[in-house]
Amino acid sequence: MAKHGKKYLEARAKIDPAINYAPDEAVRLVRETASTKFDSTVEVHLRMGVDPRHADQQIRGVVLMPSGTGKEVRILVFAEGDAARAAEEAGADFVGSDELVNKIQAGWTDFDMAIATPSMMKKVGRLGRVLGPRGLMPSPKAGTIVEEDDLGRVISEARQGRVEFKIDKTANLHMPIGKASFTQEQLLANMIAAMDAVVRAKPTGAKGIYIKRVTMTSTMGPGIRVDANQAAALKVA
Questions:
Q1: Cβ-based neighbours of 178, under 8 Å, separated by 6 or more
Q2: Residues 43-58: what's their mean pLDDT?
């Protein structure tokens, strides 16, 4: 069994594992129990009542965090001609075509988000084995295959706090909702946006209890159980 340090044990002592906390109380506790020297990332982890082996029970979507994520996002855009110029003007970090494809095939993946115009997907498709496992492959469902006219908007949203979520093989969802340095109001606003987006993404094949368990935690911090019914009822005003 892993041994925990003094700070972790002190933080864990502030949490009752038998209690499912209200969302606002969970936010207060996650800020109070974040004890790393760096600015911890706050995440929500959801245990979903679906079977991801079935196509009609997949959960995937995008949410724009109103308070941002506190993370600097390096954006790569596969584009040519006017679309490439539009991406550069919108502030993408890396823009290109064959040269980027070749660079990635050689092992480079020093970026956080990849966007592509539809015409580029014939070339980008060759990168599926590299980008797919890393969650970086542009796709329509993630909203990262983008027409030239929409490049500016999508790049701007990515800077503001655009977060993609997707159920994993064990029926769990994981989402960052900000930093421990955020205010109570900022983290709660992001939590509301995240939960609202997950509820809206409920697949047609979902039966019974949709959200079984919600846990909030900071980097290297203790998990805080959140009342799943209250969390699922959160709605963006």
A1: 41, 42, 65, 67, 68, 69, 70, 186, 187, 190
A2: 96
The pLDDT score that the predictor gives to residue 1 is 45
d(CA 43, CA 219): 8
pTM exceeds 0.85 for this model: no
What is the model's pLDDT at position 2?
56
Total residues found in the chain within this entry: 237
pLDDT above 90 as % of the chain? 83
The predicted-structure confidence for 96-114, as pLDDT tens digits, reads as follows 999 999 999 999 999 999 9
Rg of the chain over all Cα atoms, to the nearest angstrom = 19
**First-last CA distance in the chain:** 44
Domains annotated for the chain, with CATH where assigned, are 6-69+162-232 (3.30.190.20), 75-159 (3.40.50.790)
Helices (runs of H) and strands (runs of E) counted in the chain: 9, 9
Distance set, CA 36 to CA 63, 121, 192, 219 (Å): 27, 41, 25, 8
Task: Give yes or no for a contact between 106 and 81, defined as CB atoms under 8 angstroms apart.
Answer: no
Tokens of 175: 């989402």
Distance CA 54, CA 203 (A): 10
Tokens (6 digits) for 38: 């760096």
CB 148 within 8 A of CB 89: no
Alpha helices in 132-227 (DSSP H): 151-160, 184-200
